Amino acid sequence: MQHQDTIAGHIAGWMHARHEDGPFAAAPAARMLAQAAIADAIGCMHAGRGDATTRRVAQAATAGGDAWLVTGGTADPAAAAMVNGTAAHALDYDDNFTPGMSHASAVIVPALLAAGGLRVSGRALVDAYLVALQAQAFVGAGVGPGHYAAGWHGTSTIGSVGTAAGVAHLLGADAEGMRRALTLACSFACGTKGQFGTPAKPFHAGLAARNAVEAARLALAGMEGHPRAFEGPQGFAAMFRGAGTPGYDAARIAGTTRHVIATDGVVPKLHPCCGSTHLVVDALTDLRRNAEFAAEDVQAIAVKVGTANRLNLPYTRPEDEMQARFSMNYCVAVALRNGGLVLDDFTPAAVLARRDDPLLARLTMTSWTEAEEAAAPDARLPHRLHLRLRDGRDLRAERMFPRGDLREPFRPEEVRAKFLACCDDAPWAGALHDRLMALDGAADLRPVAPIFGRSGDRC
Q1: Three-state DSSP string of the chain
Q2: CA atoms within 13 A of residue 321's CA, in its CB half-sphere
Q3: What tens digit of pLDDT does each residue of 271-325 get?
Q4: Which strands, in side-by-side order, build the sheet including 394-399?
Q5: How far apart are CA 103 and CA 148, in angstroms?
Q6: Hey, which of 32, 96, 219, 314 has its CA 20 to 30 A from 404?
Q7: Residue 432: count of CB within 10 angstroms of its CB
Q8: What residues contact residue 136 under an 8 Å CB cut-off, 6+ apart?
Q9: Residues 375, 225: Cα–Cα separation, whole Å
Q10: What contacts 24+ positions apart, CB below 8 Å, involve 341-346?
């Protein structure tokens, strides 16, 4: 393999060697986690199919081609990945992936479905998903948390680059082909967090999925970028890495022995809103297990979060459903009144009805300092919630990780209930979820045809 001593070469070589030796196949727990992540992303894609942002992207996409759109019709695989990726992220209900600072599956799954079509085997899809996810982790490691803190949206930067390796693998690329895809994908990386709370934010996932398909197809045609696109002068690390991040470490890549899905995992969402609100909303649930109080009993709400999380949540009195997903004030107020958050809480009518809720003004949010975060293990500190009640009680809770994390996974019935809700409890949804949770044994992907408004025998 040419240029195997480069970072792109090491990443691609790691993937290829492990497929040749079979460790992916020998890790059933990791493959089960991948199946669950794929199912979750497909559910989110269906739930977001009617969102206004998804519809606008679909309207702009060139019709034709042989890849199915979740909104109906077909398009070229790259355009289909763009539409379906936007749908997967439209409601901000899709998973989080800390090593990639990304919404990993909302990029990976639409890209793979569009590029591979519905006739690839379930096992091939799981393999390609695992390649893409591990590649996102390797790409993210070289730029560090400072990449995200600086304002880059990892979904559309790291997610785009890592997913290109998975798409290339699905299309039959060897290690050299994956290496070329990775180097090319560095030129596609884009997207800033300044777009949060606008339709451009979910479009970032669609853009990343499209870019991954384009980079992979170009790589298979023989195109490539600079061999040292990651570590070279003015390369990905030099331009994107955060302060204090040393860059890429070939020895660390080579020394990785377990797949990232088993060590860090992807985190499916319980709440359909920005993940920066989730630790606080979960902490509220924790408080309710130990104390009785009503929303009207709450006199003041104080929350403390990470610096990047605070910057992700600029809307104290949201004007629409997009802003509401990025409003700690709104999410906590609704959770206080209703005991949780559901998809129907993020509609134009729901947000309008709650604009004058006095709980919105009772919340203040602060953040840890950058120095405090830098000194913390893994640069992470807990998110804290403090409620002051009218009867004089002070209730406090904090969380380091959200529900759905590997340390507190969802119960199988919760996973299934979310999928059914995303599919509007359609009559085919239960059977489809069962099939997706046994994806490794599927001869092809035609069972997912109902997601595209099709019957399996016509796909």
Answers
A1: CCCCCCHHHHHHHHHHHHHHHCCCCCCHHHHHHHHHHHHHHHHHHHHCCCCHHHHHHHHHCCEEEEEECCCCCEECHHHHHHHHHHHHHCCCCCCEEHHHCECHHHHHHHHHHHHHCCCCCHHHHHHHHHHHHHHHHHHHHCCCHHHHHCCECCCCCHHHHHHHHHHHHHCCCCHHHHHHHHHHHCCCCCCEHHHCCCCHHHHHHHHHHHHHHHHHHHHHCCCCCCCCCCCCCCCHHHHHCCCCCCCCCHHHHHCCCCCHHHHCCCECCCCCCCHHHHHHHHHHHHHHHHCCCCHHHEEEEEEEECHHHHHHCCCCCCCCHHHHCCCHHHHHHHHHHHCCCCHHHCCHHHHHHCCCCHHHHHEEEEECCHHHHHHCHHHCCCEEEEEEECCCCEEEEEECCCCCCCCCCCCHHHHHHHHHHHCCCCCCHHHHHHHHCCHHHCCCCHHHHHHHCCCHHHC
A2: 18
A3: 999 999 999 999 999 999 999 999 999 999 999 999 999 999 999 999 999 999 9
A4: 363-367, 298-305, 383-389, 394-399
A5: 12
A6: 314
A7: 22
A8: 97, 99, 100, 102, 104, 108, 158, 159, 161, 162, 163
A9: 37
A10: 341/271, 341/272, 341/273, 341/281, 342/272, 342/421, 343/47, 343/91, 343/93, 343/272, 343/421, 343/422, 345/272, 346/91, 346/272, 346/273, 346/321
Residue type, 130: L
Residue 80: is its pLDDT beyond 60? yes
CA angle 86, 88, 90 (to 5 degrees): 60
Q: Which residues pair with 67 in a beta bridge?
A: 75
Question: What are the tokens at 239?
Answer: 């331009």
Q: Are 117 and 73 in contact (CB under 8 A)?
A: no
| C-alpha to C-alpha distance for 421 and 425, rounded to whole angstroms | 6
Give the whole-angstrom CA distance, residue 4 versus residue 127: 22
β-pair partners for 395: 387
Residue 343 phi/psi, 5° resolution?
A: -55, -40
φ, ψ of residue 63 in degrees (nearest 5): -70, 165
- CB 307, CB 135: distance < 8 Å: no
Report how far residue 213's alpha carbon sits from residue 114's, in angstroms, rounded to the nearest whole number.
8
pLDDT tens sequence across 47-56? 999 999 999 9
Segment 215-233 mean pLDDT: 96
Distances (CA, A) of 402 to 25, 140, 282, 370: 29, 21, 7, 22
**Pair of tokens at residue 189:** 């990386």
